[in-house]
Amino acid sequence: MSTRELRSLPAEYLWDGLVLNEDIFNHTGTVLLLPKGETITRDKLNKLMGFYGEDKNIMVYEETYLEIMNDEHLPIEARQKLMENHVGYTRLQQNIGALFDRTDYDSWLSTEKMAPMIREVAGKIRDLDPVTILSCINFPRPMDEGLQRHSLNVALLNGMQAEWLELPPDDVNTLVLAGLLHDIGKTMIPEEILNAPRKLTDEELKIMRNHPIYSDELLTGKFDDYVRLAARHHHEKLNGTGYPDGIADEEIGICARITSISDIYDAMVSARSYKGARLPLDVFDMLYQEKFDGLDRSLVISFLKNMRARYTNRQVVMSNGRRGEILYIPLNDADHPIIRQGDDIRQTDDEWYCKEILAAN
After folding, report:
1. pTM of model > 0.85
2. Sequential DSSP letters for 261-302
């Protein structure tokens, strides 16, 4: 058997008609199940599933793993799960969740103790294709993963913004840390309010709006002011209409301004039971049209220009079910990009639009 890397894959992710470009092995990688060149049939799938059961895995080479992960036959939820596992997003998210579940904050709330996680998140930003990171961020998350996924997503978005602004490595790490901890105060909010599957009442909203204050209290004395004030001020607005302090303009630090953009973007592409997720292109347009007042306009434009560059030439699934390629995203009309689909090149409209942006071509 080849010494190339093998990866675990649920047998249920194979499909009728798949032609194997490489061998497939049992869950230990030691027994050949299906040879290269063979075509998967329904009968063969049934035998595999009957032998292993629905929760068992097979082993495939890295190239086959990636091919299956990006194939349109695989349901979007399965594709997403495979990708998040493959790039290490799932493990990071679970590690953050494990920290947030601990009430002994003094045992882990420090820059020194958070350093390994900061390095790992920053490493993902350096090593992964930005659209792969954004595909993890953009996918709707279960309600019970909301805080841990949101915290990781804001950390990744903060770090990406810092890289785009060409900030030094120490500042990138600071912004990653600020993203990880910006909502730590939400661990002090009652569960029934934090994960309410509906819009909050006015009284509940008042309680929820205390979370930046709780974050500040938890972080004071443990982290520098950049991190602490990013957590306290990421809901403040340059026009003074934000909360909890109602400060404005230069009173709001750069770390908080960057975190505000990351926080809003992730909130808009996520989904709750009372609010559907939005396609990233729609959020780009909302940011450009200043639907969220009080943001730093220069940082918003930097964010949008870099996002547009990362999504240009990417594969998309269109409303007619076929794949296309993004050729151009207008800065002032980002939710109507120019798409190539076969020989057809045109701008999207209400009838022909992007449904999904794929992680890789």
Report:
1. yes
2. HHHHHHHHHS-BTTB----HHHHHHHHHTT-STTS-HHHHHH
CA-based Rg of the chain, rounded to a whole angstrom? 22
Residue keyed to tokens 């403040």: 236
Tokens standing for residue 337 = 């990009």
Q: How far apart are CA 73 and CA 80, in angstroms?
A: 13
Alpha-carbon span 125 to 148, nearest angstrom? 18
Reading the block at residue 96, the tokens are 């953050």
Interatomic CA distance for residues 344 and 309, integer angstroms:
22
Distance CA 108, CA 100 (A): 10
What is the β-pairing status of strands 24-25 and 32-34?
Answer: antiparallel
Helix, coil or strand: residue 217: helix
Query: Whole-angstrom Cα distance, residue 228 to residue 191?
Result: 23
Tens-place pLDDT, residues 66-115? 788 777 777 777 778 878 887 899 999 999 999 888 888 888 999 999 99
Joined tokens for residue 101: 């579940």
CA angle 141, 182, 234 (to 5 degrees): 105
* Gap between the Cα atoms of 275 and 287, Å rounded: 18
